[in-house]
Amino acid sequence: MQGRRPTIQSRHGMVAAAHPLAAQAGARLLIQGGNAFDAIAATAAALNVVEPFMSSLSGMGSATLWSAAEGRVRVLDFVPPIQKSFPSDRFSQRSDLERGAHAVAMPGNLAGWCELASRYGRKPLAEILAPAIALARDGFALSEFGVAEFNEQAPLLEAWPEIYPSFAATYLPDGGPVKLGQVLRQPDMARTLGEIAAKGPDHLYRGALGQRIVGHLQSLGGLMTMDDLAAVAPRWREPFSASYRGLDIHVPPPACEAFQFLLSLKLLEGFDLAGLPKDGPEHLDLVYRAIRLAAGVRIAANNPSAETLAAIFSEDSLAQLRARLGDGVPVEGPTEQWTPQAGEDPAHTTSFSVADAEGNLVCITNSLGSPFGSGIVVPGTGLCLNNFLYWSDVQPGSPNRSKPGDELPMCMSPSISTRSGKPVLALGTPGSYGIMQTQVQAMVQHLDFGLPLQEAIEAPRSRLWDGRAIEAENRIAAETLAELRRRGHVITAFDTGWTMRCGGMQAVAVDPATGVMTGAADPRRDGYVVAV
């Protein structure tokens, strides 16, 4: 295969996930007669075990899906609003909410996974959770990526004496640092998942597990209540859609910030990228400029109304932005939030996609927030809690300042693309505010330059930061980087050709004529595809 991963294809089912054992868990449900919705929930639960630094049933996220029975795209939003008990006026900067009890937002993932499975799946929850329970009970061997995450984050969390002991007892029972092949067993998590399998998601949202979470947070000074938990409810939404190069791309609507991804593509649609040298300065200059312009619009119009969103995507607005894109004058501006947040952690998110032989196609992006989220592991549960209030806006003077009960704008973009009304591609990635950047870069490689899906995901990518700053994987030619600097980009090369700071993309494509599914997984993380 000349140093590249082979093309993985099947006509029966496909799972692409950020860890091979999680992809295997989803494939197991397909083999046992489940459909894509059973498999996506099983994959999510297994990721909760094998990448606890990225995934947790206490996190939040969203799913974009094609329901074959209904012949339509739908979005399930399981990003709960900011809890009413959140004391937003206490905080004035994001760093106040990086770790600890006040950083914990409402857990939406479990409710979302269960809603997908109960609405469209056919398997009982106990069967869906069985692979994850086995992984937690029996343990699994840590990979290089997992070793790096544990050994990077454990010393940082050690600075939090009120939360570190429970973290260490759960993830470092033999002490640290961990090493390649070390077996991690999580008996408390196995027991928690077993209780959820028997009692359902209300065990968390209205039952004993929720009481343990609330009690522990309050012991650490948090204010979350059982009423907050009971208010969590996933919402079915209509997708926001835009066309690009013959595809209709569907993503979650605001308050999700995925419209930045589609706006970047619409700006680029006015240019003949395919006629430019691939990965050359002209190609990359246009893509970077489009991303930065779209980010500026997203930040200025955070959580836009339907009317505002329609105005942003109107032909007059697009024409003005395309004129700016093509004028050659350097584009400078924020890419993160209203106030520049240079050098922000890339976030710890995961994205995974599943297709089945019945024609269903699902893409989920969900997250724990930062590495190991808030750092809080609830004693006796194995459950690591998120820090999603770090993604609220508490900056004084910001037009987007968050309040209790507000929707939480979320930089995620799980996508389903259709052609002539048929589903052809599920694609998503982690990466915080870089999500809407790196998906643009991969789609251009795939659609404009015609790269096969796996090669498009493997192609070199970059991460844009506030101002004019860009970090590029060092597989981009040095002379190209030099020309980009001459054009006004403050661009530096990573010391590696592959970095998770540029995402960890998983995708499944479907040929509607033959039914052949093609999976693709990102080597920047432990991504793997399992075909059925």
**Quick one: overall form?**
globular
Largest sheet: 7 strands, antiparallel
Overall pLDDT level = 93
Number of folding domains? 2
Whole-angstrom Rg: 22 Å
- Assess the beta-strand content as a share of residues: 15-25%
Number of helices: 17
Textual characterization of the structure:
This protein is of the alpha+beta class. The protein has two domains: 8-232 and 352-391, no CATH class; 237-343 and 415-531, Gamma-glutamyltranspeptidase, small (S) subunit (Glutamine Phosphoribosylpyrophosphate, subunit 1, domain 1). Helix content is 35%, strand content 19%. It has 17 helices and 21 strands. β10 (348-356) and β11 (361-369) form a beta hairpin. It is globular and about 60 Å long. Mean pLDDT is 93; it is low at 340-346.
SSE topology sketch:
Elements: E1 8-10, E2 13-17, H1 20-31, H2 36-50, E3 60-67, E4 72-78, H3 109-120, H4 125-138, E5 140-141, H5 144-157, H6 164-171, E6 183-184, H7 187-199, H8 202-205, H9 208-219, H10 226-230, E7 235-237, E8 240-244, E9 247-251, H11 259-268, H12 281-300, H13 306-312, H14 315-325, E10 348-356, E11 361-369, E12 377-378, E13 383-384, E14 415-419, E15 422-428, H15 435-448, H16 453-458, E16 462-464, E17 469-472, H17 478-486, E18 490-493, E19 506-510, E20 517-521, E21 528-531
Parallel strand pairs: 17-18
Antiparallel strand pairs: 1-20, 2-10, 2-21, 3-4, 3-11, 4-7, 5-6, 8-9, 9-14, 10-11, 12-13, 14-15, 15-19, 16-17, 19-20
Helix pairs in contact: 1-2, 1-4, 2-3, 2-4, 4-7, 11-12, 11-14, 11-15
